[in-house]
Structure formats: structure tokens, C-alpha cells
Input
Amino acid sequence: MAFADTRTGWSLPGLAAAIAVHGALLVAAVTAFAVAGQGERHHRSREVVAIFEAAERPVPPPPPPEGRKAGRVVPPVRPVPRSSDAQPPVVVSDLSPGRAASTPLPLLPAAPAARAIQPEAPHSAPPPPPQPVTAKADPLAAYAAQLRAAIMRWKPRGLRKEGEVTVAFTLTPTGQLNATRLAQSSGDVQLDRMALRMVRQAAPFAAPPKDADSLDFTIAVRFH
Amino acid sequence: MKSRNSIALRATLVAGCALAPLAAHAQDATRIDPIDVESEQASAQIANTPITGIRVDRKILDRKQATTSDTGAILSSLPGVSAATGGGFSSMPSVRGLSEQRLTVLVDGFAIDAACPNDMNPPLSYTDPQSIASIAVLTGVAPVSSGGDYIGGVIAVESTPPQFASSGETLITGNASAYYRSNGDGFGGAVKLTVAGSNLSATYTGSYSQSDQYDGGGDDGMVRSTEYAKTDHALALAWQHATGLLQVKGGIQYAPYEGFPNQYMDMVDNKSWFLNASYKGYYDWGDIDLKAAYRDTDHEMNFLEDKLPGSMPMNTEVHSFDASAKVTIPASPHDTVRLGAEYHHQWLDDYWPPVAGNLMMGPNTFVNVNGATRDRIAGYGEWERHWSDRLSSIVGVRFDSVTMDTGDVQPYGTGMMQMADVQAAAAFNAADRHRSDGNWSGSALLVYDLSRDAALELGYAHKVRSPNIYERYSWGRGSMASRMIGWYGDGNGYVGNLDLKPERADTFSVALALGGEAQGWNLRIAPYYTRVDDYIDAVPTGVAFTDMMGQPSGFVQLQFANQDAEFYGVDLSGAVQIAKGSGNDGTQLTASLSWIEANNLSDGGAVYRQMPLDVKAGVAHRSGALELSADVEWVAEKGRVDATRGEPVTDAYALANIGVAYTLSGVRVSFDVTNLFDKGYALPLGGMSLGDYKATGVLQTVPGRGRSFNVGLSTKF
Output
């Protein structure tokens, strides 16, 4: 009987392929990051990154080792129950609808956003950076939260695909989009393009803080 | 295969993936918290009609594929869906009482035209349960972008979406399956093999199925004309590039024989090949979906062993061309606009070569349909709005222009015994046969998430379908000629009607979903009402047929006619998780109930071939590699019957099935017993058992299948 499947209706092979592909990519990315990061992980950006990571998890869970065997498709294994009670996206999007993208939002505390990804910890690719505690009132962090809310408004609906895409983008000092690119593909062109589109449609953004030392951002979009 | 583009792309991808973290780090990019895009909420899924839409996925097909090769029969396990008996792989699904061309049936997104006066090769006959990835059935109101020229539900059969390797690797994956069924000595197998790089993918699917006649339950004995064999082969290529996905698929089906227990004829050869292409592009301004397809079908009917002696070749040839374009534009964060255009061309030739030495079937070829064309041009617009995170709507309108025409016809000859057909042909040839219909349709859907445990779907649609080629252009009025027309399995003869108007349906559909996966239970309640104006039914011509001895056979001649009809009912379904282990382990109880009543408002009787009350219950248990299942189905007496067609009453019955499966080293071995108690019963939608009638002279309804022990093997690699 199909009762349990009617509202979700995942295509298993598609799911398996997406998970395997992005799992493999994650592993590759993490490996590259870990190696490359050895020499320079204590560089300038530590405060910024730390805001999101400080509350998130103390120890990085190792990436799943499977899914790499010669690119084979492995059966979909759901690491996180989909019925988790915390509905983080709803919480945040409640704050965002109705606001024009160019209207500066009140400073959002970083905490809710950070909490939002807690249950998904095994999903995240990058290992945790060093964790300075002095992150509270960083204007760039608040701005990043604002960007996130603006981008999230353009999330596509009803896709029923699974995958993770990371988009990198650069802003001008006025908040215009200078460049976007795919930092990490999901292996599925549709998901990749949807994530890029979200960022491009959300632009132009509010002007970034004047003292921001970097106008480069990355954001991961996880399709469930 | 390795075009310069693909190499460049691959390199870019590899570089992009490998260097991304480096680059991000080196440039001090600020990492923004990830965004989760969930699709679980009913209101987010509105385009898929989340509550009245049902999806049969690979897991369910794994369980069913060893028990039947008939995709239509598999769908009859869904609430609101039943299956009218055809051949062994050609059941015609009926969704909420509407069947045949009243439904949109898509295979990989493409419609397949009827190519037989008895509809022996409906779209689902070109699918094999072993090779299907999923089937989506929209039983309620489907948005207008889902298709036109139909008034009922939508059935969409999908193959596995193209798979690609992670960069630099070669992906080789696939699956294989085989089965044996004791009742009818049925056996078959299927294989799927995908070889893919990171942006090119090739998939071959092939299957074979065959069976002898099955035995009915109890003392029913062998049911004649139920044997079949067929094989399907297809090759799909996909190219994924920076902004889109191009897919090309070609395939061939060959069915050397398929008996039809409720038709005078059998299918003795069916060859069909197709080539289709689609392009899905994803741009910043929106999505574009382009499709084109060609299909060529050669269909031959005659008698298989149970209907011998005799010969009566009947050939049908169909060429179809289909092209469509759809644009999806996200106009705002809350609004999506879809615009589309479709073109569909069908060419059909139907002729019956003379039988040497036979006075009635000669000396000329009987031209049943002479190069008929049916062209449809359509355009639609649709607006999807997400008013909030809980409330969504879709409204749309479409226009379909259907133009039909056909050439002159001729009877077998001009002898005295052929007079009815001679006169009918003369009248047909003298008539203007060009027809064109302008059909407006519209649909409106609303989905509201009342709470985390409850969602509501409301739908209204006005949909219009133009008559098909056989409904308009069948012309023979002789006994034999008219009995060759019809897909009702009732033994009556049918005459077409040039004056038929399109059928216009207004449907109201409500559905409430309660519970969910997290709650461990769910319940769906879905009532509906459809009124069809100018429903294409049939009225007596006044001709009653006689048997070889000149006695009345009980069969009559009918002519297609516009009448009015209404359909209403309720579909209930639910599930309770009574035990939950880790992973997929657990025990689940399921139950469903489908009730429908359909009235012909013009003659006050019941509409033909409607499923009586149908109640199903099942329990499924899974513990590691072990799966156990047991199902029971109870069907009430079919007492509401169509007097015009002489539809028989069928008795109530209950069936039980059990199954066990074990997966060992990646190989799933299943053992099922269907109709465990070997219950003898009449299929409520089976029609008259004409194969048995010809052999024995005893007229009865088509008996259901008796007990069968089924063994299945499947593996993925």
C-alpha cells in the first residue's frame, strides 16, 4: 500500500544517486579542505566563521566513509529522521517574508540560525574552524544572517529531490551581486541551478557593513 | 562520447569541486548558514496534488512484480483505482469511475495513442512492472499543465531518472530480476544497466514476460484466451551540462501474442517503436521543458488457439508525433507562472484483409478506418501561489483545439449478406467527416496545512475530451463488423457516431490528510463528485444479434451517443505503525476503502463497469533482511449494472494473499501466494468470457485468477 509514501514520494534510485554523488563530493571537499587548511586555518576570517560554528558542535563528525567505492550508488541511508520536530526553516522564514530584500533587517541574533543546523550535524562538510568566543556583535555575522533570510525567500517548492549545493558569491559595496559560482555541485544540474537561482534572484541585497573585510560569501543549500 | 564540451565541463566540475574549499578559505569567504529546502509539507507539494496524488515507488513494485506483469492491475491496489480486465498485460485502469482515453496516461512523460478498435494496446501495456521506477497517480483534480483532452485522473509512469557518476569516475550500476508464477506457468525477467560518466549517462532496460492461460479459482478451470508474451527494450541517453539535461530515449516492444478473454479477437502481433527527446533547462529566469516524440505501432488481431477454428485478420497502424514546450517562471518568491503549448498528431489506418474462400469476409479488404488523423493543438497558463508556508493555490486555464478527419471506407464486398455494411459505407462516404472542437478547460486547487497533523486539499476542474477516432469514425453496421469495435468486454457491437460532441466534466474533489510519518499513523478521506455532460455512452440501434443457430445471443448492437452522467464516491485509506524498529524495521497495518456510485442521468441506469465497494487490509512486517506480508481484499456484490449493455451481476468475494521475502548478499528472494484459498470468483470489471463462450457455448463472466505460487528474484548492482 502506498499510504506512507503519498506525501513524500521519493524516487529511491534518484535519492541514492544524489546521496552517493554528493557524499563522494563531500568527502573529496572535506579531504581537500583538511589538507589545504592545515597551513592557514588560523587566518583572518576566524571571528566571522566562528559565529556560526561556535554554538554548533564541538567535534566534527567524520564524513561517512561509504559511497566512494568507484562511484557506486549505495542504497539511500537517511542519517537524520525527516520528521524532526524542530522546523528550523519555518522559524527563520517567518522573519523574512514581506521584507523587501533591500530593506535592512534588524540584527538577527546568530543563535537561531546556528541552532537550526544542529540536528543535521553529520551532513555538514567543512570541519569546524577554531572557536573564538568573542563573536557576539559582529556586524558581518548579522549581515550574513540577513543575506540568508533574503536568499531563503526564493527557495523552490515541491522539488522532491535530495542533494546539497554550495554557492559562492561576491557582493559589491552597495550590495549588488558581483559574481556567483558553484562552489560544490550536487551532481544534479537542476539542484545546482536552483541554488544559483536563489542567490541571483535574491539580489540586490542590502548594502554590507562598511567595515566588512570581505565581501565573499558561501552558502550551502540542502534539498530534502 | 567525450565531446570537447563534456571534457571541459568535467574539468570545470572537478576543478570547482576540488578547489572550492581552498578558494573559499583563501578568499576569506564568509560562510552563511546552510538553507534547508524541505518538500515535505503538503502545501509545498501542491503541483503534485499531495493528498489525492498517490505514488507507487520501487519498494512497492519490488513486492508486486513477481505476482503480475500487468501495470494496470498493480494500480488497482490504490484507493480510487480499479482495473478493467483486458489481456494479461493490458488491463485498463479506471480512476474514480473514468477509464480509457478519459484519463491521461503518460509513460516517461509522453502519451501513447490507442491503436486498436478493442484498445488492446493501451499505454500501460508498454510498461513492465519490473522496469518501472515509480508511478504517480493523481486521482483528484490535476492542474491543467498535466495535460489536456481528458476528464479524469492522471497516471504517470516514470523510469529511473538518469544517473551520473561523481567526477572522473565511471558509474556502472543496474538491477536484474526474474520470476516464476505457478498459475499459468508464467515466467519472465528484466535487466537494467546504466553506464555513466559525470555528465553522460546511458541506460539499457529490457524485459521479457510470458504466460499460458491461467486457472480460475475453485472449480472454475482454465480461463481461455489469457495467454501472453511480450518483450520490451529501450536505450536512454542523457547529457547533463551546465544549465540543463538533455535526454533521448528509443525503444521497441514486440508482443507476439496476447489472448483477450472478453473480446472476440486476440492480439497476434504488436510491434511498436518510439524515439523521444526532452530537454530541461534551468535558467535564472525560470525553467524550460521541451519535448518531442514519435511512435509507430503495427497491431494485428486474429484468433489464438482457444478461439480457433477460423481466421479474421485485422490490422491497425498508427503513427504519432508529439511536441510540447513548457516554461516555468518564478515571478516572485511566492508566485510561479507556467505557460505551455502542445501539439499532438495521430494518424490511424485500420483495415481487415479478406479471408480466402469466405463469403462474408471477402473479396475485398474491409477498410474500417482510412487514414484518419486527429490533431490537437493546445495552450495553457497556470499560476501557482504560496500565500504562506501553509496555504497554496494553483489556478489555470487551457484551450485544446482538436481537428479530426478520415478518408473513404469500404466493406468486404457487395453481397446480400453484406448489405448492412454496404449501406453504412455509402452513407459514411457521403458524409462530411471533418470535425473540429475548441475545448476550454480550467482547474483550481487549494492546499492548506491546517496543522502539523492535518492538511486539506480542495479542487475544482472543468475538463473536456473530444471523441477518439473509433468513437467518431467506426461505421460498420453488420453484426460482425460492429462486434469488432469496442473496448468494453461485453460482447456487444458498437457503431461510431459522426455527430458526437466532446464530453465536458465538472469535478469537485476534497481530501483531508491526518497524521503522518512522525505520528506513526495516517488517515486520508477523499470524497468527490463529477458530473459529465455529453458523456460518451451508447444507445441501442435496435439490432439484436443471433447465434449460429439463429437464436438470440443476448448481445445487441449499440451506437455511441452523448448522454449525461455523474460519478460520486469516497476513497479512504490509512496506516498504523504498530511496531517500529531501527531503520526500516517495523510492522505496519494498512487499510483502504473505495466506494463509488455512477449514474447515467439520461437513461436513469447505472454507468457500465463500475467497481463495487472494495475494502482492503494488510499487514507488513520487516525485520532486517526478512519481509513478511499478508493482505485481504473484500469486494461487494456488483448489483448496480448497465442494462443497456446487459452487464451481468457479480457476487461478493474475499481474497487473501501472503508473501515472504529475504534479502541475502544483495539478492532478494520472494515467495508469494496469491488467492491463498483458491477462491473462485467473477471479476467485477471482467466482462463476458468470450474465449470460453466460443469454445464451450456457455456464457459466463470472466473468472478471476485462482491460487498461484510466485517466486521472485531481484538484485541491484
In short: The radius of gyration of chain A is 18 Å. Residues 167 and 183 of chain A are 5 Å apart (CA to CA). Residues 10-63+87-223 of chain A form one domain. Chain A has one domain: 10-63+87-223.
